[in-house]
Amino acid sequence: KIIYEPEASIYHWHGIHHNLNPERASNIVKILESIDGLSSKKNHQDPSSLNIIAIIPIRGQTPTVNNTCLLDYTIRAAKNSKFLNEIIVSTDNKETARLATKLGAKTPLLRPKELSEEYIDITEVLKFSLEYIEENEGVPDLVMILEETYPFRPINLLDRMIERFLSEGMDTLIAVKNESRSV
């Protein structure tokens, strides 16, 4: 006989990913999502009630396109979001920091030169920036990373991403553009 006791505490292992079978793993996910209270898809939060920030990492000076700097395009897109509470530029360049402040972003830190070398991964820059923000301004609920190299974002893209991220219970969401031409 098998008895299901919800109060029982037990560790049981027989391998959810037994033989790396995708169908088996998918079935387990469906079962877990059907249990009330477990599915993150049913527990999304209202984005207007969250502290959502944008971090724009920039090394050196921002380039220009059509006589407008890419940072300007990026900050304007962020300012159009109804959910972003703060726009923070993480840079190593004082001139870029002054420009970012003039454009309406915060520049609470200049990152050290060693985090601006060619071989430094963006994750190190973001880790440093987020640690500074958390220590000095508190822990945000959600962080959106905006690269200045993608200046022409569709209208409301950032808000749609935030809404989708929360409603579908995602850990990470990345905007991509389908290219129909060969590379």
Whole-number average pLDDT?
A: 86
In spatial order, strands of the major sheet run: 4-1-5
Overall geometry: elongated
Percent of residues in beta strands: 5-15%
Tally of individual helices: 5
Can you tell me the residue ranges where pLDDT is under 50 for at least 5 consecutive residues? none
Largest sheet: 3 strands, parallel
Order of helices and strands: HEEEHEHHEH
Measure the end-to-end span: 61 Å
Helix-residue proportion: 25-40%
Number of E strands: 5
Kindly describe this structure:
With 183 residues, the protein is α/β, with parallel strands linked by helices. Helices cover 32% and strands 13% of the residues. It contains five helices and five strands. A three-stranded parallel beta sheet has the order 4-1-5, with helices on both faces. A hairpin with a 2-residue loop joins β2 and β3. The longest helix is centred in the last third of the chain and has 16 residues. It starts with 21 loop residues before the first helix and ends in a 16-residue tail after the last helix. The mean pLDDT is 86.
Task: Give a quick set of tags describing it.
183 residues, alpha/beta, three-stranded parallel β-sheet, two-stranded antiparallel sheet, 5 helices, 5 strands
